[in-house]
Amino acid sequence: MITINGLSKTFQVAKRSSGMKEAVKALFHREYTAVEALKDISFTIKPGEIVGYIGPNGAGKSTTIKVMSGILVPDGGSCSIMGYTPWLDRVAYVKNIGVVFGQRSQLWWDVPVVDSFELLRDIYDVPEQEYGSNLSLLTETLELADIIQTPVRQLSLGQRMRCEIAASLLHSPSILFLDEPTIGLDAVSKIAVRRFIRTINEEKGVTVILTTHDMNDIEALARRIILIGKGRLLFDGSIDAIRSRFDKEKTLTIVYRNRPEPLQIAGATIESWSPERAVLRVDTEKAVLSDVLIEASKQVELLDVAIDAQPIEDLIVQLYKEHQIS
Amino acid sequence: MKLYWKYVVILFKSQMQYRASFWLLTIGQFLVPFSVFAGLYFLFERFEQIKGWQFQEVALCFAVIHMAFSLSECFARGFDYFSAMVVNGEFDRVLVRPRGTVLQVMGSKFEFTRVGRLIQSLIVLIWAISRLPVEWTAPKAVTLLLMVASGTFIFTGIFILAATLCFWTVQGLEVVNIFTDGGRQMAQYPLQIYKKWVTRFFTFVIPFSCVNYLPLLYILDKAPGNGLLYMLSPLAGVVFLLPCLLVWQVGVRHYRSTGS
Amino acid sequence: MKAYISVFKLRLYNGMQYRAAALAGIATQFFWGFIIIMVYEAFYSQGGIEAPISLSELISYVWLQQAFLALIILWFRDNELFQLITTGNIAYELCRPSGIYGLWFAKLLAQRLASALLRCMPIIAVALLLPEPYRLLPPPDPATFLLFATTLLLGLFIMVALSMLMYISVFVTLSPSGSMLVFAVLGEFLAGMVIPIPLMPGWLQSIVDLLPFRYSADFPFRVYSGHIPKDEAWIGIGIQCAWLAALIGIGKLAMGKALRRVVVQGG
Q1: Global ipTM
Q2: Average pLDDT, chain B
Q3: Which residues on neighbouring strands pair with residue B53, listed in sequence order?
Q4: Which Pfam families match (chain B) (predicted)?
């Protein structure tokens, strides 16, 4: 569906100068520095995938999205999406994609949401029947029925984002680009948006490419992560692969019947200890978790056990650290 | 074209959300050229004529250029506001939609309040026509229509050129006012009254004289020799618009390769 | 007083940063100046008509108008102030220990000065060197120049006091653009910005004389060229001071009333 090969892009950034003399000079001659936004990026995405495209600020995420959505022309490399080269056949190509920029609205601010939808129908030339069935499906799954007659400026951020996503799906695109779709949303809205993204992916088979800084989005949605840093592709694989690579430590919290002296358990480090409760750290490469538990139960009378994996956020931070891009 | 009207309808609905401010602005827009016209009237009251041109003739000149200006401010306002569109990234949105950029930018804004200005110039036009001792014929009426249309094209072309500059820089764009506001101010009078370099510039570079002065000679039966050339001179407005659209495409290409 | 001065300084430096805008503005104003002068030149070339102001006096009038445009236009919009008023954030301003009238006055004054300082020098310098008949002639004697500087400064204060009234009116209407546009168009016409006041018909001139608008622009420019003789200029300065006192008085009164309403309504 999407094949990207050796994509690269360099920007010329004018050097900022200060002072009157420099400013006058800059009128005639400007010095530029080249910034490599993308260096030899290659990956393929299959139909129906949800891919999390992540990386720190300035890594090249939005440049890639802009290239893939036909906004920007790269310097080198090829990109084939559904048989189109996005920047060459812009008008024909963009009929097949939907784009949501989380920070910017595509809806007309002062008119009811449905008016915006109807204009988008005309812009994308959606047949009446298709529009009708899409609209009723979207209204149902996104629970828009109550807000569709309200002017956009009166909507809450969460309501607006639901409408934004609906707006980019009216023309039944095969690919949906989501740029920070949950930014600024409250917890309830975030969960609703995630649930909906999964629904349309499963039911309509829409391929989703998602950039976000919220790792909970990634964990809830993406089975695959592409990590980019300083313009290079650093990691491409499943979340499980990251887990098995970095998530080698588990935190074990045990509660037991009163025992005045400290525990000694082979294969575990004692993080903290009290007569009723202890926190242990277990390196899963060196010790088996069940052995540790058995050992513990020999020493104390266990009342409660909790095992915590590292949050995905920490894993990503480790990944950034490994590549020295944070 | 059908789509463009849909854009207009949605913008009109938006505008109607702020009705009071809409009416006040429209009245204000009516008054702006009105005060200029009053100034013109007082000057003619004192001096009676300008280089052989009577007040009614200059009034016709005034009406045509102000109509053209207000029409282009109505329709091509999106280009006038284009720098904001580039700065806040709205133009990316335009590029991910399966329509031409010119249509979408034009459809992004429509200044309905300019109707006030349009009405004012229409009144002046009707007044001037009724007072001029001209025998109106079909070709003359067509020429008059062509003048307004062609003037609209020229102002639109200048707006597009200014918008294209935004792809490179958003600083110092006010200099374009020379050609929009300045062009309007200048073309209120028959171009003949100015110095040669002004007349030449505004005939061959930006063809304001072709929408106003030259065809006016034909309408007022002042044209020497064959009137046809004078009658058709407003077509220069179309000729002016085409390279502007071309330059716009170059600008869009530049934007898509630099993303700045 | 210190607070006012630092607000003034901040705004002045801020405004001076827009060099590209200033350059563009200078170019535009030159073009306008030329166009207007050529029109008057055409009118004057006909002869036979006794004009109430000579062409060279008129040309000085036009160049000074272009050079000091930022000081004398009514339509010098400060969106920050508008937003402050319409969004109700004015409450924050009320927390400051200085009087709002003075602070805003300083702010508006500085904005106009910054914008004018950047533009007036190059325009005047070039206009003084232009070939005849476009040249801006220097004032007839140093005393006239001093009178001009005084009247221009007083005129600037009058203009700021007038525009303060416009901002205060926004408290009542809460919608800036429409009513202000009407006010600005009328005010600028009556200040001689569309056509110079001496060229207006007599009946209109006698109306204009009764209003404050012409004392900001028309009056100093005619003092400059000597079109208004010195003894008349001294009387004019007296009228300027009277208007200034009256406008500031009205402004403060109106602002006090408007603010009380804001406090009562809670913004």
Answers
A1: 0.88
A2: 88
A3: B50
A4: ABC2_membrane_6
